[in-house]
Each structure stands twice: as C-alpha cells, then as structure tokens.
Amino acid sequence: MAARRGSAPKLGDVLLVTGAEAFLADRAVRSAIAAVSKGAASNGDAEIEVTDVDASTLDVGVFAELTGPSLFATERVMVLRALENLPSEMVPHLIEYAGATSDDVLVVLVHSGGQKGKAVLDKLRKASVNEVVATAPKAWELPQFVAGEIRLHGGTLDERAATALVDAVGHDLRALAGACSQLVSDAGGQAVTAELIGQYFGGRAEVTSFAVADAAIAGRTEPALEQLRWALDCGVAPVLVTSAMAGGLRGLAKFASAPSGLRETDLAREVGVPPWKLKQLKQQSRGWTPGGLATAIKAVAQADADVKGASGDAGYALERMVITVSRAHGRR
Description:
This protein is of the alpha/beta class. The chain is built from 15 helices and six strands. The chain has helices at about 20-40, 60-65, 90-100, 120-125, 140-150, 160-170, 175-185, 195-205, 210-215, 220-235, 240-255, 265-270, 280-285, 290-310, 315-330, and strands at about 1-5, 15-20, 50-55, 75-80, 105-110, 130-135. β3 (about 50-55), α2 (about 60-65) and β4 form a beta-alpha-beta unit. α6 (about 160-170) packs parallel to α8 (about 195-205), α9 runs antiparallel to α10 (about 220-235) and α10 (about 220-235) runs antiparallel to α15.
C-alpha cells in the first residue's frame, strides 16, 4: 500500500513517488496537488498551475522554465512522470534543484519501480526529499484496502463483507475503489453488507477465480471445472485463476505447517490471513496430505508458466491444473 515518509507536501518541496502500483501512485500525485491547491485557496491565492511532463522529454531549458521564479508570481506544480527515463545529462540539474528548491513550486517525481533509474533515486533520497511508496497490497491485505476505501467515503463494513467484495470484483485496485465509492453512495448511510455486495456483483462473484480455487481445493472436480468454464466465458484472465489457486494452496500449506498451540491471533499472523479465515482453512485442510499439497503446488506452478506463454492453450492448461489439484485432495 502507499506509505508516506515525511510531512504533507507543500510548495517548495520535492515529492518522490515510487512503486509499480499505478493506481496508488496516481492517487499520491492527486493528493499532493490537492494539498497545495487547498493551501493556496486558504491564502486567497489563484488556482495552482499544474504541468505534467514525461521525463524522457525534459531538457535544461524546460526544467529551468518550470522550476524557476515566475514572472507572474504563479504558484505551480510540476509532475515529472517516468523518472526512470530521465536523460543522464539532466540528473545533476535535478539533484542540484532538490538541494535548493523554489518556494512557489512543488515538484512531484514519479518513478514506476524497477532497477532502471535507481541511481537517481538513491541521490534524491540522500537529499532527504519526501517519498511516497506505492506498493500493491498482497492478496490477503485486499480486504483491509477495501475497508480503508469504505471509511474514506464515510461508510462502514465488516471483514466478511470486505472479503466478499474482493471475491466479487477481483484484485484490480481501481475497480475495487470504484466499487467502494458506489456502494457507500447507494448504502444511504447504512453499513455496506455482503447482501448489498451480492446485489451489485453477485453474478461476477459466482464466476471468480476464487470460486474455481475453492472448489478444486475441496476436491470437487466437476464443480471446479464448471466454475472454470464460466469464469473463462465471462472474461476472467487465466493468470487470475492460477494466482487464486496458488494463494489458496499457499495459505493451506502455511496453516498445515504452523506450530501447534498458537493463539488464534498469533496463528492468523503466522499464516498471513485475517483471523476469521482460519475456520475456512481448517475445513479445507481436511483430506490434504504433504504429498498431495506438493503435487498440487507443482501443478499450479506449471499452469502459471503455461498461461504466461509456455503453452498455446491456456484453457487446456487451466483444466489440467484444476483436475490435478482436485484429485490431489486426499492423496498420500
């Protein structure tokens, strides 16, 4: 999730936004612009001027124009996208600016993650710029993300409803955020419930990758295959099916290998799931052996490679995975 280091952005700052999760990075940029705009409005100043620039196109003249003193005393925000593509000759100018910023400019630098451009990131961090890290939440953290979005819009929901929404909508953060906004708006001040989620997204929930995984892990081959066919017909990406299956088996393996005698909260932390999900894992673990789990996990790894290009028939690869996983249930 997005994590901030330092205080809220203001004019005169350099804000570094790093990470591969585009939705959270975009939100961090919007929040920074909103913060300085609000500050300008409270001081009776005119609207903030925002300029969005691709780093690969930046040169000394443009940079000086956007960050230098304004002839019209305009307060400005410069958003520099794809920092990893910044021309090497511009790096010294950017680092020099970070050490002596303009009081009427906020510079927001967006780096999409990865090793490219790491040297400039290290130099900026040494210059003590503020940083927001946009990291995608892990699958088991998505209900927490949903709960946070619901609170952001002034609503409430419990853990089961949050998980129901994730199961229905999937792992895309933009889609989840949009669903949260819609649900709070239509809940009319009431709590967002699993029933309300079912009314909006029930059709999708029945064909999600999680339904395929749950049926296969329970050893129910035919229902799992039926869910898989419906999911693919409804446009669920094959990689989401392998991801859901891998997550389910990984949680099961962690649950099975966890030390005995742990308290519920400690066991949930050990496995990496919310406490209420332990009951489901306990039910799923019946009939599974270490050998069966190993076979299932190997089958999912193969299917994941197949749907990412190792095989020309993703549907066949997924069917083979579902059959292998469901038949591994109870195998010694």
